[in-house]
Amino acid sequence: MKKGNTIDDSVDTEIFQCINPSSPKSFFLFAGAGSGKTRSLVNVLSRFKIEFGHEYKLFNQKIAIITYTNAAADEIKHRLEFDPIFYVSTIHSFAWELIKPLTIDIKEWLKIELQNDLNDLKEAQSKSRNLANKTSIDRARKIESKEKRLSTLSQIHQFIYNPNGDNISKASLNHSEVINITAHFVESKALMQDIIVSKFPVLFIDESQDTKKELIDAFFELQKNKKESFSLGLFGDTMQRIYADGKQDLGNNLPSDWLQPAKKMNHRSNKRIIKLINEIRKDVDGQKQIPRIEKADGTVRLFVSDRTLDKALVESKVAQKMSEITKDVQWILGNNEAEKSNVDIVNFKTLILEHHMAANRMGFFELFEPLYKVDKIKTSLLDGSLSGLNLFGKTILPLLEAYRNDDKFSMAKIIKRSSPLFQNKAIEASKDQIKYISSINEGVNELLGLWNEKADPQLIRVLEVIKKTGLFPIPGVLNLILARTEEEKTNIDVNIKKEGQEDEYQDDVINAWDVVLQTPFSQIENYNIYLSQDSAFATHQGVKGLEYPRVMVVIDDEEARGFMFSYDKLFGSKELTDRDKKNITEGQETGIDRTKRLFYVACSRAKESLAIIAYTDNPRIIKNSALKYGWFDESEIEILK
């Protein structure tokens, strides 16, 4: 048996044997934080290319590798030397690859879905007590829009879809439709299963615990029906499941013929950090990682602070203390000082519990909170794919930045790429092309004029100018709001003030946007900085798969304002609710379970040193609980005064 840093070498061999074309097997690979999962994947596939690559090319077959982000996909492609026998993509790109030729089938699926939606909308409309209220006015337009889409389906010769952008043309599918259609086709259509297996005899899914449940279930059904010729490989760690639409307890109760290899090494973190994350998950599944032999001991500290203290001062003080404890000047060096000192420019990463905390600290809270409350769009808000925000963040913001930089070339490029007014048909249809181009320029000037004299226009004003000028396509839900007439707006305002006049069938998405559109555009800029990960802050959820030398984890339930997670309950400073107790008794997931997973993800990002700041009303209880759990020694906990 191999020991030391090579203890996991046999795992690569097990996986390779699973994808042997003559005897395929399926597997779930447990790969905890920092376990070298990507390294194993690349090693296995590089060996496969040598031994079976020629055969795959001969039969025009590929191994499909689904990753969670475009960045991860690009890294794997590069490490596999862009060999054509590997199809590496995100889940949305892969799903589209499977269904895009099936135009007739997609139409049939959409007909059923649209008709079901219409039936529900019309039933709600018939029960509306007052057709002048906001909900019924908007619902009437939704009915009109869906009926129009249903009637024009026959005119679509081919559907279009962009996994990385908005999809708001008549022939396009949106992100959720692509996933739902794919899951339905894979699970229910024998022909689709035959097509997948003939083209992709091997399918690897990275971060499988967070891949949408419906898709995972569909691929399980595919594997069950095609096990003699198909290998499904799931890479994941249930302790790192952070999205609600992932499959709960993935990896448990697998078919008896599945292999379940496990990687034991953690190549990322120093020894003390690995000991901590092992303790955090000890009573969840007992999985235990081993550090590399050459790793240093590393440093972990828990600082407990009363919520009434100034948080900026607390966090600055903790950074100073960590610098003294670790003798690492980068805990206190700013980026400019780091550059002057000729040391690693990366300072430390601050990880916060919930997106609310980031929104509050970075100045996009009013934009964020109303949308985050709506479950059906929450994931799109968090991963940056919400079409309404993308209009502002991916089209208007770059245009504004080019304008501020007097970059006329970039301005023209953005407008030509994104504006329907610059489509060849539109230009050719104009009688006077010079006058037509001039009118577009006038529209651009009117739009950008909203920011003159350092103004910060509300989003609704930006939308109104876009609609007036026709510069850019507007997503459906925002079009519904813009379509309200002045009379309707007046009736809405009057009726909302009358007790009992609001509709019982509320549209949460439109209600959220009504609030969000009153926020200033600068909040879009702040939200975009957050999404780009250029800020000093990141959430526990947003850093899965990433790593940093120094990490500061900030936990504060009050600032997070989330109901899904609770550090106060995890550390025993807040009583469990009756619902919590009921869920525990019934074996259901609780907020404590979710919080513990997030805590694991956050702590496991650190490579060298880790500081945890817990804001609480009961510092002594937090300290005692941390000691009782065995997560920290007495010398590693400090209550800040």
Could you provide a short overview of the structure?
The protein has 641 residues and is of the alpha/beta class. It contains 29 helices and 14 strands.
Count of alpha/pi helices: 29
Strand order of the largest sheet: 3-2-4-5-1-6
SS content category: alpha/beta
Shape from CA axes?
Answer: globular
Number of strands: 14
Rg for CA atoms? 27 Å
Descriptive report:
- This protein has 641 residues and is of the alpha/beta class.
- The protein is built from 29 helices and 14 strands.
- The strands form three sheets. A six-stranded parallel beta sheet has the order 3-2-4-5-1-6, sandwiched between helices.
- The radius of gyration is 27 Å and the shape is globular.
What is the topology?
Blueprint: H1 9-18, E1 27-31, H2 37-58, E2 63-67, H3 70-79, E3 86-90, H4 91-99, H5 103-127, H6 134-152, H7 175-188, H8 190-199, E4 202-205, H9 213-225, E5 231-236, E6 262-263, E7 265-266, H10 271-281, E8 290-291, E9 299-306, H11 311-326, H12 335-340, E10 349-352, H13 355-362, H14 365-372, H15 375-383, H16 387-404, H17 408-418, H18 424-429, H19 433-448, H20 459-469, H21 476-482, H22 486-496, H23 508-516, H24 522-531, E11 537-539, E12 548-555, H25 557-560, H26 567-570, H27 578-585, H28 591-603, E13 606-616, H29 619-629, E14 637-639
Parallel strand pairs: 1-5, 1-6, 2-3, 2-4, 4-5, 7-8, 9-13, 9-14, 10-11, 10-12, 12-13
